[in-house]
Amino acid sequence: MNFQQLRAVRETVRQGFNLTLVADALHTSQPGISRQLKELEEELGFELFIRSGRRLLGLTPPGETVLPIIERMLQEAENLKSAGADFSQSDRGLLTVAATHTQARYALPSAVRDFRDTHPQVSFHMQQGSAGQIAQWVLEGQADLGIATEALAGYPGLVTLPCYRWTHEVVVPLGHPLAREVAAGQQLTLHRLAQFPLVTYETGYTGRSHIDEAFGREGLEVDVVLSAMDADVIKTYVELGIGVGVIASMAFDAQRDTQLAALDARHLFAPNTTRVAIKRGAYLRGYVFDFIRTFAPTLTRELVDRALASPAGETFEP
C-alpha cells in the first residue's frame, strides 16, 4: 500500500469515477491509475469500486466504509508536510485564500496589505468563486482558508468561524424617485422597492438569500432584471438606469460612485455574517493563524484551536 494508490482512490471519487479525468489530475496515464486501484484492492482483499466492464460506476459498500480512512491518511500526510515546513521555514511559504468577489474586492485588501507587511516571505494566492466552489476548494486542500457569506456553515467537513456582520444598501441614480423620497424623510419600504426592477447578486452570493427571504415574507413578487456576482457590475447597470440596485454596504464608495445615491436598507433585510472556513483536521501553519487574526481580530489562535476541536457539523460561535 502506498500514497499514490490512496490518492488515486480519492481522485477517482472526486472526478466522478472518470479515469481519464483522474489521470489528468494526477499527471499520469489511465492504465497506470487502473493498475494502482487494482493493486490496492488485491492488497485489501475486497473491491472498492462497482464496475461495468472497464468503467467504474461507484463505490462498493466496503469502498464507502474505507474512503473516510483514506481521506484521513492523506490529510495526515499533508499535515506532516506542513508541520515540517512550519518548523524548518516558519516565516515563508504559500497562503491560498478562496473568497467571493465582494470579500476579495472590498473586505480583504487591507488585511492582505497588513499581512504582507509582517510576512514579506509568504506568497499570497487568491482564488475567487461562489460559496460552493470555495467550500470545495478548502475541502480538497486547494485553499488554506475560505471566506464567504453564503453556505459555508453547511459543510460538516469544514470548521467555520464568524468574522464580521454587514448589511445591504439600495443604490439608485442621482435624482431617482426613491432618493428624493428618502431625502424628504420618507422611510424606504419593501413594498415601494418592489415597484421597481431590481439589479442584485446572483443566488448564492453575498446575502442574496436574505434579500429573497425579505420579499417572500411580505408576499411580494420582485422583478430581478439582472443579477451578477460582482457589485461593480451591479452598480454599472444601475447607473445606466436598468434598475434599482441592492448591494453589500461595503461595496458603495461615495468618492468613486459619484453618479449613485446609497439608501440605508438595514431595516429591510436581515444582517449577514461573513465567515472564514478551515478544513476540519487540517494542520494550519503559524502564518495562517496570523492572517486569520489580521482579517478578524477577534479570532485568536486559542479560539480557532477550540473551533477545530469542536464536534463535526457544529457551527462555532465564539
> Under the CATH scheme, which architecture of the largest domain would be assigned?
3-Layer(aba) Sandwich
CATH superfamily membership of the largest domain: Periplasmic binding protein-like II
Q: Quote the average pLDDT.
A: 89
The dominant shape is elongated
Helix content: 40-55%
Describe, in plain words, how this protein is organized in 3D.
By secondary structure, this protein is an alpha/beta fold. It folds into three domains: 3-84, Winged helix-like DNA-binding domain superfamily/Winged helix DNA-binding domain (Arc Repressor Mutant, subunit A); 94-166 and 273-308, 3-Layer(aba) Sandwich (D-Maltodextrin-Binding Protein, domain 2); 168-270, D-Maltodextrin-Binding Protein, domain 2. Helix content is 43%, strand content 22%. It contains 13 helices and twelve strands. It has helices spanning 3-14, 19-26, 30-44, 61-88, 101-107, 109-118, 131-139, 177-183, 190-193, 208-217, 231-239, 286-295, 301-308, and strands at residues 49-52, 55-59, 93-99, 122-128, 145-148, 158-166, 168-173, 198-201, 224-228, 244-248, 260-264, 272-279. A five-stranded mixed sheet has the order 4-3-5-12-6, with helices on both faces. A five-stranded mixed sheet has the order 9-8-10-7-11, with helices on both faces. The chain has a two-stranded antiparallel ribbon with strand order 1-2. A hairpin with a 2-residue loop joins strand 1 (49-52) and strand 2 (55-59). Helix 1 (3-14) crosses helix 2 (19-26), helix 1 packs across helix 3 (30-44) and helix 6 (109-118) packs across helix 12. The model has no long low-confidence stretch (mean pLDDT 89).
